[in-house]
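User: I'm designing a mutation panel for Sirohydrochlorin chelatase and want to avoid disrupting the core. Could you give me a predicted structure to guide residue selection? Please restate the sequence first so the numbering is unambiguous.

Assistant: Good idea. Sequence first, for numbering, then the predicted structure tokens:
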Amino acid sequence: MKAILYVGHGTRSKKGENEAKAFLQKVMAKVDTPIQEISFLELSSPSIDEGFQRCVERGATEVSVVPILLLTAGHMKHDIPAELAAIQTRHPQIPITLQQAFGVQENILDAIAELVRENVLDLTSEDSILIVGRGSSDPEIHTAFSEIEKGIQERLCVARISSCYLAAAEPKFHDGLEVMLEEATQRVIVIPYLLFSGLLLSEVILWCKKRGPKVIQIDPLSRHKVMEDVVVQIATEGTKHDAILNG
């Protein structure tokens, strides 16, 4: 019997954890698979190992792992595969398929543009946009954010757009915001490229409030319904480049 194991990042924020679980409950209601479980890579429970064990206890004979990650970086390339490899050695009879992260998709970029327009009804070409990512030491992250910048620029046609990061990459959020404020002639629209609430989003909210009315911060991405659709599609159809751990 097929099972789906969703793997979120995890957070120390109870609000963020509850948001992730509520989001995934909505996804699970749309996916016609008998066994579905939620797990987290770190900081929240249940763990990947615990979630997998629940799948086994419910009769799973194969498990598709769906990472709830926006982009491919260290967690996707190393941490989750390492966890699953250890699990696979304990359950060699159960095939494990690891699906891909969301990646830069046109429908996600469309959703971001809609969130901006909903929050800034009088958006003009003189406004500027700052995209704030979680950050990673993986160089592919910069490539991805260049694509995201280009896609948002094409959709919103603002004066300037740039990206910054909350950890593990440059420029840092505080520096990126200050530079943008110095260069911007009108408002700065801050887009947190994050799915849920959490300590990182709290940092963004705090700094945006400190900088006053010239800075407008947009909601995290999971506020748009299309993000549920993205996960449903991955869960039901898989991805083009699945990594089959056992062979």
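For picking mutation sites, this is relevant: The beta strands are 2-8, 35-40, 62-67, 96-98, 128-133, 160-165, 188-193, 215-217, 243-244. The two ends are 19 Å apart (CA to CA).
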